[in-house]
């Protein structure tokens, strides 16, 4: 992590999958609302560009070039949040693996395993690590639905993404009547992201909702 111990007036916001797309747009939006953003992604260049935009707009961020599929790195991240910031006010989870579209009998074992790891096991592990930190601040965990379960050729992505949201809904139900943290699940409009381009390569991207506009809608409705 870059050395920055600042916490914004609105608190600390963690964005996993922050280097591009909706994650980057949410990070910028949160920084504009006064949060200090802890931005996690594997792509160092994307994080640095995000940091430049946040700082140019008067916000603050700490960059964490980490792989969310590395449990030791995620443990280190959680420990750093506890020791440096004393808790977590918001977690937006946008990290995802988009396996290639494929008929179900032809899904490769490698693509399936990576999808299960990134989309489901990582989510389970992060929930366990971050719930205590969110409870300390009465924070919010945010997940983003993208329903493709049961659609042809979406076997790997649709199955694991829907399982991720099912896990988030269980956590949401478990915490609904408790004082403290809350879990929010949103279904964003189609956006011109790199993930969507893999699924719909010939689509008219001009007709899609810009990530920045969708991030602003999400933050207005969820915060």
UniProtKB/TrEMBL annotation:
Signal peptide: none annotated. It comes from Paracoccus fistulariae. Keywords: Oxidoreductase. InterPro entries: NAD(P)-bd_dom_sf (IPR036291), SDR_fam (IPR002347). Belongs to the short-chain dehydrogenases/reductases (SDR) family. It comes from the Bacteria. The keyword Oxidoreductase applies. This is SDR family NAD(P)-dependent oxidoreductase. Pfam families: adh_short. CDD domains: SDR_c.
């Amino acid at each position: 992590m870059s050395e920055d111990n600042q916490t914004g007036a609105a608190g600390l916001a963690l964005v996993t999958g922050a280097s591009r797309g909706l994650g980057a747009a949410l990070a910028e939006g949160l920084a504009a609302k006064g949060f200090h953003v802890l931005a996690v992604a594997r792509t160092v260049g994307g994080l640095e560009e995000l940091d430049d935009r946040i700082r140019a707009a008067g916000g603050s961020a700490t960059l964490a070039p980490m792989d969310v599929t590395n449990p030791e790195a995620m443990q280190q991240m959680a420990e750093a949040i506890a020791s440096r910031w004393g808790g977590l006010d918001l977690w937006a989870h946008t990290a995802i693996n988009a396996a290639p579209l494929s008929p179900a009998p032809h899904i490769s074992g490698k693509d399936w395993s990576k999808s299960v790891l990134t989309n489901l096991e990582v989510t389970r592990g992060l929930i366990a690590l971050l719930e205590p930190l969110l409870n300390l601040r009465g924070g919010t965990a945010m997940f983003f639905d993208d329903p493709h379960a049961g659609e042809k050729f979406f076997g790997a992505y649709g199955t694991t993404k829907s399982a991720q949201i099912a896990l988030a809904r269980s956590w949401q139900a478990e915490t609904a009547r408790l004082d403290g943290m809350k879990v929010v699940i949103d279904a964003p409009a189609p956006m011109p992201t790199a993930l969507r381009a893999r699924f719909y390569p010939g689509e008219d991207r001009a007709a899609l909702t810009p990530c920045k506009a969708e991030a602003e809608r999400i933050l207005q409705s969820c915060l």
